[in-house]
Amino acid sequence: MRTGPQSFSLEGKTAIVTGANTGIGQAIAVALSACGARVACVGRSSMDETAALIGDKDKFLQIGADLSTTRDVQRIVDETRGWTGALDILVNNAGIIRRGDAIDFTEEDWDAVIDTNLKSAFFLSQAAARHMIPQGSGKIINIASMLSFQGGIRIASYTASKSGLAGLTRLLACEWAAKGVNVNAVAPGYVITNNTEPLRKDPGRSQAILDRIPAGHWAEPGDIAGAVVFLASDAADYVHGITLPVDGGWLAR
């Protein structure tokens, strides 16, 4: 029985965060680092800004990788473990979106989103778990979406990928919880990122979204990071298989 206080500290932990060059992924990487973790930041573009925000070069590793395929998955895990000798936390944040009416949606746009958002997340989780299960501990956090709960419009493959990611979170929790690995997800609400720029530039759509958010404003990327820190910490040791909305009350309305 656990009797002492549980800790939110990540001191001594090693984390992987995908899509850490900007937006939500960047905010998560910075927050994990601030709580003590060493963070391997994965992405296709420069991480200079993320490195500057983290500040401590000993807590930052850049791994260039393209998660539109599974080709780099094992290398990401190997480079991270080669850096610190450990892997304790994986945050599957990398994702893309393609927009179009369902009647006209292309196979190319379907495959591109599913491959990045769902397929690579699964196989990276698998590669990480092959290290975490033998050590008897690990935290995997998937970044889901409001589209894990709702249908949306004009984003068929994105909705499918994020609904699938929530289901995958439950499946992996059922298989790995007894082995010491916690698998959970965070579902951001409407956040100011590159992916939501088309919505924010549409005055009617942007206002309709704001009118539904009880908090009265869009989230900043940093608003999502605290939930990830919690799920990555010892304080969440008995939390398995949830998809935690961080949405300003969107789903409550």
Q: How are the secondary structure elements laid out?
A:
Layout (H helix, E strand, L loop, with lengths): L13 E5 L4 H12 L3 E6 L4 H7 L5 E5 L8 H12 L4 E4 L14 H29 L2 E6 L12 H21 L4 E8 L8 H4 L2 H10 L9 H11 L10 E4 L7
Parallel strand pairs: 1-2, 1-4, 2-3, 4-5, 5-6, 6-7
Quickly describe the structure.
The chain is an alpha/beta fold and 253 residues long.
Describe this structure in words.
Helix 1 packs across helix 8. The protein has one domain: Rossmann fold (3-Layer(aba) Sandwich). The relative contact order is 0.15. By secondary structure, the protein is of the alpha/beta class. 42% of the residues lie in helices and 15% in strands.
Q: What is the helix fraction of residues, given as a range?
A: 40-55%
Structural class, please?
A: alpha/beta
Average of the residue pLDDT scores: 96
Q: Tally the helices.
A: 8
Work out the radius of gyration. 17 Å
Broad shape: globular
**Domain module tally:** 1
Number of separate strands: 7
Order of helices and strands: EHEHEHEHEHEHHHE
Largest sheet: 7 strands, parallel
| Fraction of residues in β-strands | 15-25%
| CATH architecture group name | 3-Layer(aba) Sandwich
Q: What is the CA–CA distance across the termini? A: 38 Å
The strand order across the widest sheet is 3-2-1-4-5-6-7
Low-confidence stretches: none
The CATH first-level class comes to Alpha Beta
CATH topology: Rossmann fold
Question: Please, what is the CATH homologous superfamily?
Answer: NAD(P)-binding Rossmann-like Domain
